[in-house]
Amino acid sequence: MAVLLLLTSCKKDEPEPDTRMKLEIFKKKKSSSGEITIGSKMAIIHVWQAENKDFDLALSPDIQVGNVYDKNTASFHTIDYGAIGSTMNEKVLPGRYFVYVLLPKSAGNGGLMYSYTYFEIKKGETLPLKKIFSHDTPTGTFEPWDQNK
């Protein structure tokens, strides 16, 4: 019995590859002189594993709190990863994901703007994702992920 324990405990554990998603949120600003600059922006960030899933935001009234509807399973899914801030650097498993970003409510233009996209991350990869919101988009509107790239 001791030999069996010794053999199983001597098995060399291989470290998992460092698979990461690094997400950064920015928003354009227009100064009184008309100059447009880009700065970091606080946001609510939700990420779901999306392997074999087809999310429907129109059927997801609680997406802002982390629940999204999947048409393939006809069920709601709670977020797998979340953050509040301008960056998110998270170790994840390889696969397909869905990210939803919501800017907080504000007195100026652009409050409650949101964007989303699907992305794939491979084993051992660090995937940089970036969303730059426009300076002149009305409050509460959707902006395509690739706009302002």
Structure in a nutshell:
The chain is mainly beta and 149 residues long.
Provide an overview of this structure:
The protein has a single domain (17-133), classed as Immunoglobulin-like, CATH 2.60.40. The protein is globular. Strand 5 and strand 6 (75-78) form a beta hairpin. With 149 residues, the chain is mainly beta. The longest helix has 8 residues, at 2-9. Residues 1-12 have low confidence and may be disordered. The strands form 3 sheets. Strands 1, 2, 8 and 11 form a 4-stranded mixed β-sheet that branches. The chain has 1 helix and 11 strands; from the N terminus they run αβββββββββββ.
Main pleated-sheet profile: 4 strands, mixed
Strand content: 35-45%
Helix content: under 10%
- Within CATH, the superfamily carries the name Carboxypeptidase-like, regulatory domain
Give the structural class. mainly beta
Q: Low-confidence parts, pLDDT < 50 over ≥5 residues?
A: 1-12
DSSP summary, beta strand count: 11
User: How many separate structural domains?
Assistant: 1
